[in-house]
Amino acid sequence: MSQMSMFLVGGTSLFRRGLASFLHGSEFTIAAEHDTADACVAAAGDAEPDLVVFISSGDVDASQQAVEQLTQAYDDARLIVLSGTLSVDELAACLRAGARGYLLNSISRDAMIHSFTLIVLGETVFPSGLAQAWVRGGVSAGRSVADRALGRDLTRRETEILDCLTAGASNKQIARDLGITEATVKIHMKSLIRKIGVRNRTQAALWAINTGFAPDGLQAAA
Q: Could you list the pLDDT tens digit for every one of the 222 residues in the chain?
């Protein structure tokens, strides 16, 4: 991947400097820093970054508003939220507002850079730990995946694949677990994604968590 430009928004100057140092030597270059989303929006038009990183203060409403402002001002850029706490509510609010990723700022350098790369490539990324948190927070997990598929016209094989997907399994793992070929997995996956109205396997896993498909102990696909 060629060099990617990045805006850092929010947080303290010290934190942003630390993040810039953290990313030194990677394909991501800090093109601008702003204390607030308002300041970043006011500068719109001067340059268009590949990635906008919003550093959350932990206030869900403030994060949602900032993401909405930034995605409208920089509609060609991908936006990711960095948070110091694991918040299901903030994840949901930010994704609804247009964020393409939500990460804890405590993750390793390699994981952060890999996540940034996936987001630039069009994926949606979030911490696997949020899957368990979502379930603990009250998402129903008492029924079977097949039962929860009612109303979506999912076949039993599609629900089995969705179950594997929310456990973080690759196509190869799914094929092995279900005793079918990878080509067959891809056919069912395409049908599943179309039926639930998402764009990729990561969004399918997130949809499953949000609507109660995800079983206890799952790991998100990202």
A: 678 999 999 999 999 999 999 898 899 999 999 999 999 999 888 788 999 999 999 999 999 999 999 999 998 899 999 998 877 778 878 888 889 888 988 888 888 888 898 888 887 787 765 555 554 544 333 344 444 444 457 788 888 888 887 767 788 889 999 999 999 999 999 988 888 877 888 778 777 766 655 544 333 433
Residues 71 and 139 both lie in one domain: no
DSSP 21-81: HHTTTSSEEEEEEESSHHHHHHTTTS---SEEEEE--S-HHHHHHHHHHHHHHTTTSEEEE
61: how many CB neighbours lie within 10 A of its CB? 10
Q: Are residues 12 and 87 in the same domain?
A: yes
CATH of the domain at 152: 1.10.10.10
How do beta strands 51-55 and 28-34 pair? Answer: unpaired
| Entry pTM | 0.63
The tokens describing 65, both together, are: 């508003």
Phi/psi of residue 31, nearest 5 degrees:
-90, -25
Residues facing 9 on adjacent strands: 34, 54
